[in-house]
Amino acid sequence: MKILFYDTKKYDKESFDKVLPKYEDIEIEYVDSDISVRNAVYAKGFEAVCGFVSSDFSAKVIDVLADNGVKIILLRCAGFNNVDIKRAKERGVLVLRVPGYSPEAVAEHAMALALASNRHIHKGYIKVRENNFSLVGLTGLNFFKKTAGIIGTGKIGAAMCRICKGFGMRVIAYDIYQNPDLDFVEYVDLDTLLAESDLISLHCPLTDDSYHMINSESINKMKDNVVLVNTSRGALIDTEDLIKGIRQHKFHSVGLDVYEEETANVFENREDDIMETSITSRLLSFPNVIVTSHQAFLTEEALEAISYTTLENAQSYIEGHIIKQNLVLPRE
Fold first, then answer.
1. Which of 248, 266, 269, 317 would you call most buried, defined as having the most Cβ atoms within 10 angstroms of its Cβ?
2. Taking every annotated instance into account, which residue ranges of this chain make up the domain D-isomer specific 2-hydroxyacid dehydrogenase catalytic (predicted)?
């Protein structure tokens, strides 16, 4: 099987090349650019294409892929809201993803954002580099004996719950489905979580129901001086309402690995570009906000797991037994 990898970064190539020798029936060609309607035609002659979380697998792109003989879209990520699943099924293109690779990687980054923003590590680092050893503006909060509110308790949310418990926090959670493995977690309704949490961390998928779940109304229900972290999907938060809340001093700090309108920025070096949207610059203008570049997944362990699962998905197709739990199907 020949697979065309779009949007390939140095770390992608290194991790996949490391495990590729175990898969004699698979050949990979890497390209730097991400997939689009214009360059999807380059997949002619390939049975599969591989993309990442921000790759454009819209109906038009899928049509071009299908017209050129592509049978599989391999996602080297868990999220698939960037894929028109219905159109893929109509065109007979299978979509396979990596539902879990290293939930601890994302959860640890979420806690890193919580700690760094809370204790103003980003400000302290810059001040010391400038020979400024003043502590003014660096006061943080203890997490010990505070309440952590975890929204979404799948594998990543569960890992975050365990981390917060290790910090000596009371852990409450909101999820439609309660995780039976988290016997130390108190499940509550969303309003209770918003009202009682000192730290709120988002770990839920982006759906019609969860879109902009953090908005002016939900922010008003939060405690004053709350710490908010998002490592899931940017559109879980209404950014305009978040900015309004920051300006009203609602938050002690905010840590974002994802944010709305991040697509053009994700994984790209744009240091010489003029910003096309003011969202990033406005978020970065606040001293109590840290924004990272969708890097929560980026550990050596996670990259290795992603590589293996992606190639296992391809191998399963070759051998005629698709890994069903990795197959993405449209909702009925």
1. 317
2. 3-324
Alpha-carbon distance of 229 to 215, in angstroms, equals 14
- Whether 12 and 67 map to the same domain: the answer is yes
Q: Which of 76, 203, 252, 294 is catalytic?
A: 294
Say how many CA atoms lie within 13 Å of 26 toward its Cβ: 26
Confirm whether 331 is domain-assigned.
no
**pLDDT value of residue 260:** 86
- Alpha-carbon span 82 to 62, nearest angstrom: 12
Q: Does the annotation mark 331 as catalytic?
A: no
pLDDT, tens digit, 9 for 90 and up, residues 122-160: 999 999 999 999 999 999 999 999 999 999 999 999 999
**Same domain, yes or no, for 97 and 107?**
no
| Cα(185)–Cα(88) distance, integer angstroms | 39
Q: In this structure, is residue 332 part of a structural domain?
A: no
User: CA 149 to CA 110: how far, in whole Å?
Assistant: 13
- Rounded to 10 deg, the angle between the 300-319 and 10-19 helix axes is 60
For the stretch 214-244, pLDDT in tens is 999 999 999 999 999 999 999 999 999 999 9
